[in-house]
Amino acid sequence: MQPVPHREATVVEMFQSVQFQHGLSFLWKPQLLWLNALSDSSIALTYFLITTALISVVRKRKDIPFNGAFFCVAAFIIACGATRAMQVVTLWFPIHWITGTLEGLTAGISIVTLVMLGRVSPSILAIPDQMVDHRFSELIEDAPDAILQVDAKGIIILANRTAETMFGYRREELLGSNVDLLVPIGNRGGHKDHRQGFDRFGVARVMGQGMGALHARRKDGSEVSVEIALNPVKTKDGIYVTAVIRDVTERKRTERQLERTVVQLNSLLESTTVCVLAVDSAWTIHYLNRNAATLLSLDRNIQGMTLWDAFPAQLPEERTILRRVMETRQPAWYESFYPPLDLTTTVQAHPWEDGGVAVFFSDISSQRRLEKELEIANRRAESVLENTNVGIFAVDRDWIFRYVNEDAKRLLKAHDLLGKEMWKSFPGMTPETTQRMRQVMSTRTPAGFDSYYPPLDLSTHISVNPWEDGGITVCFSDISEQKRMQRELDWERVMREQRLEVLARFSAGIAHEIKNPMAIIHARASDLAELAADGEVLSAAVVTKACESIVKTSDRAMRILRGLAALARDGSNEAMQEANPGEMVEQAIELVQVRYRTHGIQIESSVPDQLPPVECREVQIGQVLLNLLNNSFDAIEASMASERWVRVEVSEVRSEKGVEQLQVDVIDSGPALSSEVREHLMEPFYTTKPLGGGIGMGLSVSRAIVTDHGGTLELHDCDGHTCFRLTLPVIAVHVHGVAA
Amino acid sequence: MRLEDATILVVDDEPDLREIFSVWLERERCTVLTASNGVEALSILETGKVDVLLSDIRMPVMGGVELVRQVFERKLEVSSIIFVSGFGVMNLREMYSLGVEELIEKPLNRQHLLQVLGDSLKERAESWLMPLAEPVEEIELVMESVAGAEATCQFQMGKGGCCFASDRRLTEGDTIGLSIQFARDGQRLKAQGTVRWFDGGGSQAGVSFVYLDPSCRDWVAAACERACRTFIPQCRCDASAGPSVEAVLLTGRASTLK
Question: Does the ipTM surpass 0.85?
Answer without folding.
Answer: no
